[in-house]
C-alpha cells in the first residue's frame, strides 16, 4: 500500500529568504551603498585630516609634503604659538559673546513666535505665518546694506551690537521648527493651564517652553555652528582689534608677503574643536529634536 507524504517545496525558500537580513538579501546593492558612503566620507574627512597634519609640520615641510595626510614631523609647538602669537583669549571671549547671546535671543524669540502661531487662533494668522516663511526666500545679501546703514546711523559700527541684536528678532526657519513642535503637543495642556489661571505668556514660559527641551537643544546646537563660525558679519561691522572674533582674526594670518601655513592650520584646529565636541556629544539630541518637529 502506497504512503502519501505531504511536502511544501515552494514555501520554505521564500520564508527563509524573508527571514534573512536585508544586506544578505540585497548583497550587491548593499556593497554599492557602502562603496559610495566610504568614498563620500573620505572626500569630506580628507581636508580635515590634511589640516591636522599640516598643523604639525614645519613651514618647509608643508611644501615638500604636498597632499600627504601623515606628517613626517610632529611640531606640537605650533599649537603653543597659535595661542601666544595673537590675543587668542580676547578673541575667544568675543566669539563666545557673539555666539551665546544670539543663541539665547534666537531661541527665545523663535520659540515665542512658534508658540503663538501654533496655539493662538486669530484671523489671518495663517497668512502671517506664510509671509514669515516667505522671507526665507530672500537671500541674506539683500538685507546687508540696509542693516549696515541702520547700525551706522545708530552709531553701533565697530561694536558687538550688530552681531547680537538681530538675533532677538527671530529667524523664520527656527520659527517654523518651533511652530511644528508646539503644534504636535496636546491641546489639553493649554486648557489645563487656562483653568489654573495662566495667561498666554505664563502658559508659554511655565508649561510649553520646559517641554520643548528637545527642540531647544537641537536649535541651540545648529545655531552654535553658525554663530561660532560666522565670518561675514564681523568682517562687515568690526574694524578694530578689540572686538575681533576668532574667524575674523584667523583671516589676519594671511598676507601678500607670505602665510605661516602651519600656524594658520593649528589655529584653525583649535577654533574647530568646540564645534566638533558639541556635535559629537549632542548628535542624538539634534536628531531627536529635528525628528520631533517634523523637520526631516
List low-pLDDT spans: none
Quick one: how many beta strands?
0
| Structural class designation | mainly alpha
Helix and strand succession?
Answer: HHHHHHHHHHHHHHHHH
- Average pLDDT taken over every residue: 84
What's the Cα radius of gyration? 27 Å
Separation, N- and C-terminal Cα atoms:
68 Å
Number of helices: 17
> Can you identify the CATH superfamily of the largest domain?
MetI-like
Helical fraction: 55-70%
CATH class category of the largest domain: Mainly Alpha
Return the CATH architecture of the largest domain: Orthogonal Bundle
Enter the CATH topology name of the largest domain. MetI-like fold
**Strand percentage, roughly?**
under 5%
Query: In the residues, how many domains can be counted?
Result: 2
Q: Which shape, going by the Cα principal axes? A: flat
Biggest β-sheet: count, sense, barrel?
A: none
Keywords: Cell membrane, Membrane, Transmembrane, Transmembrane helix, Transport
Pfam family, one: BPD_transp_1
Transmembrane segments: 31-53, 96-117, 124-140, 160-182, 203-228, 263-282
Main location: membrane
Q: Which short descriptors sum up this protein?
A:
296 residues, mainly alpha, MetI-like fold, 2 domains, 69% helix, 0% strand, flat
Secondary structure layout:
Blueprint: H1 11-19, H2 22-25, H3 27-55, H4 59-65, H5 77-84, H6 88-119, H7 125-134, H8 144-153, H9 161-164, H10 172-183, H11 188-195, H12 200-211, H13 213-228, H14 232-237, H15 246-251, H16 261-281, H17 283-292
Helix pairs in contact: 3-16, 5-16, 6-10, 6-13, 11-12, 13-17
Amino acid at each position: 500500500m502506497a504512503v502519501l507524504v505531504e511536502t511544501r517545496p515552494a514555501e520554505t525558500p521564500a520564508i527563509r529568504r524573508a527571514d534573512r537580513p536585508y544586506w544578505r538579501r540585497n548583497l550587491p546593492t548593499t556593497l554599492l551603498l557602502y562603496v559610495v558612503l566610504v568614498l563620500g566620507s573620505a572626500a569630506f574627512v580628507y581636508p580635515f585630516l590634511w589640516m591636522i597634519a599640516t598643523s604639525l609640520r614645519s613651514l618647509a615641510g608643508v611644501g615638500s609634503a604636498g597632499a600627504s595626510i601623515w606628517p613626517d614631523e610632529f611640531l606640537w609647538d605650533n599649537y603653543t604659538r597659535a595661542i601666544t602669537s595673537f590675543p587668542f583669549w580676547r578673541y575667544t571671549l568675543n566669539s563666545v559673546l557673539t555666539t551665546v547671546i544670539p543663541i539665547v535671543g534666537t531661541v527665545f524669540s523663535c520659540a515665542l513666535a512658534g508658540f503663538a502661531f501654533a496655539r493662538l487662533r486669530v484671523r489671518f494668522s495663517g497668512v502671517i505665518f506664510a509671509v514669515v516663511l516667505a522671507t526665507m526666500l530672500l537671500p541674506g545679501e539683500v538685507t546687508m546694506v540696509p542693516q549696515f546703514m541702520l547700525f551706522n546711523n545708530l552709531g553701533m559700527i565697530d561694536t558687538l551690537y550688530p552681531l547680537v541684536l538681530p538675533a532677538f528678532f527671530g529667524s523664520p526657519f527656527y520659527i517654523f521648527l518651533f511652530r511644528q513642535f508646539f503644534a504636535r503637543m496636546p491641546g489639553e495642556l493649554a486648557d489645563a493651564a487656562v483653568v489654573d489661571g495662566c495667561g498666554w505668556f505664563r502658559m508659554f514660559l511655565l508649561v510649553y517652553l520646559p517641554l520643548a527641551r528637545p527642540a531647544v537643544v537641537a536649535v541651540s546646537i545648529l545655531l552654535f555652528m553658525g554663530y561660532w563660525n560666522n565670518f561675514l558679519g564681523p568682517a562687515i561691522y568690526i574694524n578694530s582689534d578689540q572686538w575681533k572674533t576668532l574667524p575674523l582674526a584667523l583671516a589676519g594670518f594671511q598676507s601678500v608677503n607670505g602665510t605661516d601655513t602651519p600656524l594658520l592650520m593649528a589655529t584653525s584646529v583649535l577654533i574647530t574643536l568646540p564645534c566638533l565636541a558639541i556635535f559629537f556629544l549632542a548628535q542624538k539630541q539634534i536628531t531627536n529634536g529635528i525628528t520631533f518637529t517634523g523637520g526631516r
